[in-house]
TrEMBL record:
It comes from Streptomyces longispororuber. SMART domains: Prim-Pol. Residues 25-206 form the DNA primase/polymerase bifunctional N-terminal domain. This is DNA primase.
Length: 220
């Protein structure tokens, strides 16, 4: 059941399933003040889901930008977002990083291990997405991309040995309920609420993330 914290905060965040992409995009812009832009979409061809880009080998079917100038298309206006998705209601919802947030991207197994450690440490988390390609993105304050490598080194981990990527300016994440081909939809591992409107700094959560990624690396 959907959480109901206040009238215009968590109650207005898109549900995991069953809500129109346009409504979700509008609410991200209106309630969280996140920039949004429409990406590719899925089309049914002979009973098979294909990406609108028409690339049969598309690595992220229905979940990537369709224009090279997508950074200029991203908007924080709910009115503009509604108009953009009215043109293509099935377009994926993409959120540019490096603006209101950066995202630390890790494998799903490491992400859930890190979540458990963060809970024990009583750390305050921002929103966290879980994608069908088994990745998780932890939303943190902007600027993380520049300092995460040094933070990881200070913790004793060579950055190149960890499957941990920070998405900042020029990158993006897909937001629920965007679908990745037939694999399923992006979901919230930690949904946006009134309690996590203020994002953590990368330095606050990098230790459990690096540890969890390091543990996964040793298992390979």
């Amino acid at each position: 059941m959907e959480e109901t914290i206040g009238v215009t905060s968590a109650a207005q965040i898109p549900k995991q399933r069953g809500e129109a992409l346009q409504d979700s995009a509008v609410r991200y812009a209106e309630e969280r003040h996140w920039d949004v832009f429409p990406g590719a979409w899925l089309e049914s061809v002979d009973g098979t889901w294909r990406c609108s880009c028409e690339n049969a080998a598309c690595p992220a079917p229905g979940a990537h930008p369709v224009r090279d100038d997508w950074p200029t298309q991203a908007t924080g206006s709910a009115t503009v977002a509604r108009r953009l998705w009215a043109k293509q209601p099935n377009a994926s919802i993409l959120l540019p990083t490096g603006r209101t947030f950066d995202a630390i991207d890790v494998p799903e197994t490491a992400g859930f291990l890190a979540l458990a450690r963060m809970e024990r440490m009583e750390l305050t988390l921002g929103p966290v997405t879980c994608t069908p390609d088994r990745r998780m993105q932890f939303f943190v304050l902007p600027g993380a991309a520049a300092k995460v490598p040094d933070l990881v080194r200070k913790l004793g981990w060579p950055p190149a040995t960890l499957d941990l990527v920070t998405l900042g300016e020029g990158a993006y994440v897909a937001a629920p309920p965007t679908r990745f081909g037939a694999s399923g939809a992006v979901q919230w591992a930690c949904r946006p609420t009134a309690a996590n409107r203020w994002l953590p700094d990368a330095e606050e959560i990098i230790s459990p993330l690096a540890y969890s990624c390091g543990r996964e690396a040793r298992r390979r």
